[in-house]
Amino acid sequence: SSARSDHGPRIQFINNVQGVDSLDIFYRYENFSQQTPSFLFLEGFKWKEASEFTTFSLIYGANIFIIRNPDSSDTTVYFKASFDREVTQYEKSYIIVIEGDSFQNISMSLFNVEETYKGPNFKTKTRIYNGVKGTESISIDEVYENDGYLVRNLKYKEGDGFFDIESTRMDLQIQNDNEVGLSEFTVPFSNFSNQCVFLLAVGDTRVD
Q1: Close Cβ partners of 73 (under 8 Å, ≥ 6 residues apart)
Q2: What pLDDT sits at residue 2?
Q3: Would you say 205 and 135 are in contact if contact means Cβ atoms under 8 Å apart?
Q4: Largest CA-CA distance found in the chain, in angstroms, rounded
Q5: What are phi and psi of 186, to 5 degrees?
Q6: Whole-angstrom Cα distance, residue 87 to residue 53?
Q7: DSSP string of 15-36?
Q8: Mean pLDDT of successive 10-residue segments in the chain (208 residues)?
């Protein structure tokens, strides 16, 4: 069965579960009979992968998403989350970040996003999400052009609201709670002029 609908919420999934090779996502509708099997939506969904935006129906109640192990002999439901029309609305777009480090420790975070750019020319509408495990918060600094911080003290599993930045190449540094640099990377925002970007910071600062 297809999840696609004409007017429901459009949802993209991002996998930030670092401790597993891949996972499967099933879905079902709240008002379907319990005897109705769940439908396989994403199979073998790997860490750092992002799905396409898919439109889901709200006609049959809340959308229920279920995480399972791709191992065909393991039918355990490791995580289940329900999203109704109070949190996912018709003709709105959302990203669900799947977080965790094992099948026994999984959560989902929902964020509203924009797919169509509306703003000044030569800008990139950006939202930043902190998926760096082992940190209470991060800051992201533009380190070479001295353009200042894109975001400061962004807590783990939170996403900063959309803001417009110059569509240029930026060298960014992720910093921990004490503003000590953890990693540097380059983002070619110039390739995304007059577009919307969801920037996911991932990693793990924990020491075994």
Answers
A1: none
A2: 46
A3: yes
A4: 59
A5: -110, 135
A6: 17
A7: EEETTSSEEEEEEEETTS-TTS
A8: 66 95 94 84 96 92 94 90 92 94 94 87 93 93 82 93 88 92 93 93 81
